[in-house]
Amino acid sequence: MKKLVILGAGYGGMRILQRLLPEGLPEDVEITLIDRLPYHCLKTEYYALAAGTAADHHLRVSFPEDARLKVKYGTITNVNLDGKLVELENGDYVPYDKLIIGLGCEDKYHNVPGAAEHTNSIQTMDKTRRTYETLNNVRPNGVVSIVGAGLSGVELASELRESRPDLTIKLFDRGEIILSMFPRKLSTYVQNWFIDHGVDVINKSNITKVEEGILYNHDEAIECDAIIWTAGVQPVEVVRNLDVEKDKQGRVVLTPQHFLPTDEDVFVVGDCASLPHAPSAQLAEGQAEQIVTILKKQWDGEALPDELPRIKLKGVLGSLGKKHGFGLMGERTLLGRVPRVLKSGVLWMYKYHSGS
């Protein structure tokens, strides 16, 4: 039997499983999925778990059930490309014929002293659970600082405002206005929502150091009961350690067919892949669809296309608590209740009709 090994049950890995099982997998191929958890996690909703407005079990999606799918639980420590082996923390190793690396990303601290040691994270399920406990235990009228006002920081701050109205919430943003990469109309709406709801937005911030309970903005000390870091991501350490070509962000450079230029048996999907768009669940799923196409052609001995269609993204939807939101669909900016309802609908469809 040929062995297809998938590292990580993220959005890309799950979409590949959904497209290959039950009908798309050749009879002489078996799949091994390696992950630390026994379910797929809705990472785009970690902010709600951290804020206490979504239950842990609501963020889980079961793996497909199929006799040709083996699930191995463990922490991956190394990928031996020469030996075609995946090495695990417990000393086990898993051989592969085809490998798909979809291990996602982790926080990037930009060399800020103390940031890794003294801040909380929402990058993994385990870390998000600990962040929830930290936020849940903050004293009444305490101070919570969120570093980074991208999509994750914005959604966390707004959800926390509804969950804990007693808190002083400070949102630190390097730009002149929140979400500056989006149209000004959208950025202004979000910034004003925070002002209207009593969230302190600190624009043009520069976090220079973090100590236990103290955040330094432009070297000015700010005492905090909790500090959450949402100020950038990087590929996980296993991918950073791979001796392959990477871009300036440390993401793996791939051929148009999504495999390594030096190895057509190794694919990279999701946040670790160097692609012309910012990492997102949508992008990982679109890339996964194309990887499945390439895998089938390889297994059938067919010629591979020189180029693949551009991955089409439907847009961006973000929440501001449970009743308001924002979005960008093509050139159209959506503000208010409509994008929030749309986001809830998209999430429901993913959870209950994923892969269909």
UniProtKB/TrEMBL annotation:
GO terms for molecular function: NAD(P)H dehydrogenase (quinone) activity. Pfam families: Pyr_redox_2 (PF07992). Its cofactor is FAD. It comes from the Bacteria. GO terms for biological process: aerobic electron transport chain. Keywords: FAD, Flavoprotein, Oxidoreductase. The keyword Oxidoreductase applies. Belongs to the NADH dehydrogenase family. This is NADH dehydrogenase. It comes from Halalkalibacter okhensis.
